[in-house]
Amino acid sequence: MPKATANGIEIHYEETGNPADPAMLLIMGFGAQLTLWPDELVERLASHGFRVIRYDNRDIGLSQKFDGVKAPGLIKLTLMSKIGLTPKVPYTLADMADDGAGLLDALGIDKAHIVGASMGGMIAQHLVHRHADRCLSLTSVFSTSGNPKLPPARPEAMKALVTRPDSTDEDVLVDHGVMLARTIGSPGYPTAEDRLRDRTRASIRRSFYPEGPMRHLSAIVADGDRRPMLRDIAVPTLVLHGEDDPLVPCEGGRDTAACIPGAKLKTIRGWGHDLPLELVDEVADAIAGHAKSATG
Burial level of 193, CB count in 10 A (0-12/13-18/19+)? Predict the structure, then answer.
């Protein structure tokens, strides 16, 4: 299993495609392993002529964990956010962006196309701002600007995201994971039950680490409003968002595109907060087309 020391920590990554092709770095979201990028999407991107690199963020999957490092509880995070205070957190989204840049360093990659989904989109925004000279393009997928005036997640989606399973029995964990996927997934493109259960079980067996997501969440809340930063982003940007996303409503994508100079926006009806097989070709082709246009 390939691992690299990046930004002082150990990061697990996987590569697909020709190493001689332009690099494309995929950054996954909150509490999610790199395997949440469907193999079909990764292979489609590689077929467009990209060296596709996906990795586990810190504190999740097979990358380095921050065992014993306490994050503020959800109630404290919410209260501090509402009164405009920034909580002290174990690490920030900017730190996680530096992990991505460090991985490029470790792999000897000078420049890459950056693609981030959900929290990964927030990390990607920081990456292209902090390391603009390393970034050829940005694609922000069902992510947001941090604008506090935007519509929040639907209550059932947020509840499903932060509720812990009743036990660590594998079947209970699978049921919980399927419930979450159904709650935040695409109403227009529901995943087949057997595929969803198999992917959820494989993810649990690969790594089950419930402590990491709370630290991820604290990094998101502490990050606050990114609009001033987004206005300074100068790399070619595409924003992709589902019109039926219950976790990060589509307004988050629209606001992101409105804040980044020259950004393009593509929304898809029936798409929620997942990457269904039916949309793999459309999403991959949009990402690849944007990356190619960014470099002429």
Answer: exposed
